[in-house]
Amino acid sequence: MTLSDKYKSIVFFTGAGMSAESGVPTYRGRGGIWSQYNWEEYACQEAFDRDPQKVLKFHELRRQSVLACQPHSGHHVIAELEKTHPQVRVVTQNIDGMHQRAGNRNVTELHGSLWRVGCRSHGIVEDMGETFKSCKCDQCGSWLRPDIVWFGDMLNQDVISEANLIVRRCDLFISIGTSGVVWPAAGFPRIAKESGAYCIEINPEPNEMSSLYDEAIRENAGRALPALFEINK
Ligand code: APR
Fold it and tell me: Are 76 and 50 members of one domain?
């Protein structure tokens, strides 16, 4: 009996390590985005207010680098499971849209998306592609802000409530590639555990949250997921 036969409701809780083998850099650790770029210059509202063009340029570079990457076998396993298993959900901290590119539809994006921009007065619009379709709102002319949760931002309460509900209801919670330091996302493993889910961590490196899990797989996501679900993609 495989895990997907044994459990009814599976949550994949993903962080930057999920996309690492696709070539998208993680945030922390060697080669991490925040060791190359100072987030105070690129990833907070103050930076955007100070110099919107500089921040938009940075995000355009990230869009280009993400578009050059492809989902890996681990992404494909999760997408395949969603097709065959009605209660598979992805709750992700990633903004790269890689799960959707692999074919997942049930994705809750906690930290927003590189592929949306917004204006305070006129709302959020989807904007796919290497470059932004427009950097200014066509209705009021203000700079369009990437729809991303930056340092110091409040998370969207509706998204958090949805994620909370999904995590509380699952019976299998699999965390993949997160350092577990950014809240409130870092609280989800405990919520899953306290709600009675079996919790598995996939991460080559342990972290402060690791003791919470019932099982740890110290492997890369691209190797661990096909083996865990006996699916080769
Ligand atoms: N497979 C699985 N895990 C991996 C892999 C891999 N191939 N490669 C690296 N990892 C693990 C690392 O060991 C680390 O624990 O992925 C984790 C990446 O951690 P972070 O870079 O801190 O990413 P994340 O936890 O997603 O960051 C949370 O911080 O700046 C913000 O908003 C940003 O959503 C992001 C949030």
Answer: no
